[in-house]
Amino acid sequence: MIPVIILLLMLAIQAGLYFHASSIAGAAAAEGAAAASVARIPSEVAARRGQRAAENLVIEAGGQSTSAAIVAVNTETIAITVEALVPRIIPFFPSSVRRAVIEPRERFSTEASR
User: Fold this and answer.
1) Which whole-number Å values give the CA distances from 42 to 46, 48, 57, 68, in the listed order?
2) Integer Cα distance of 79 and 101 in angstroms
């Protein structure tokens, strides 16, 4: 009976760790997309800004990323993918979680062009 209770407790802890890493990855992707979507900056600068913002949020939240954030920029949208490591205490759970965010780029328009 005791081993079953311990296993259930470990499953609950592992699920919490997974959802925490998922939350960190999602928030980092959203932060990076928001930072990169600023109007009037070149695509290369937007990509670097978004990647840096996403990676900083992962670090600040206490997570670990598996690699650098993947950023795709075009004239209309910004897409950022962040993959965070999941601490494992049970072997069959996934070791990482990936979240992606697509956000439109801001556009500046004058009053006359509306």
Assistant:
1) 6, 10, 23, 20
2) 6
**What are the tens digits of pLDDT across the range 65-98?**
888 899 998 888 999 999 999 999 988 889 999 9
pTM (two decimals): 0.85
pLDDT tens-place string over residues 21-60:
999 999 999 999 999 988 678 888 889 999 999 999 999 9
Fill in the amino acid letter for 63: G
Q: How far apart are CA 3 and CA 80, in angstroms?
A: 42
What residue spans define the domains of the chain? 2-107
Q: Residues near 24 by Cβ (< 8 Å), separated by ≥ 6?
A: 57, 58, 61, 62, 63, 84
